[in-house]
Amino acid sequence: MMIKSKSRRWARSVLNAALVIFFYGCAASELYAQNGPDSLPQLSESEAEWVADQIFSNECARRMDCLTSWNAGEDFPSLGIGHFIWYREGQQERFVESFPQLLAYYVSRGEQLPAWLAGLPGWESPWSDRQTFLEARQGAQLSELRAFLYDTRATQTAFIMQRMEESLPKLMQASDRPEAVQDLFYRIANTSSPYGMYALIDYVNFKGEGTALSERYQGEGWGLLQVLEFMLDNPPILDDESALLEQFAAAARAVLARRIANAPAERNESRWRDGWNNRTFTYVP
Question: Which residues of the chain fall short of a pLDDT of 70?
Answer without folding.
Answer: 1-37
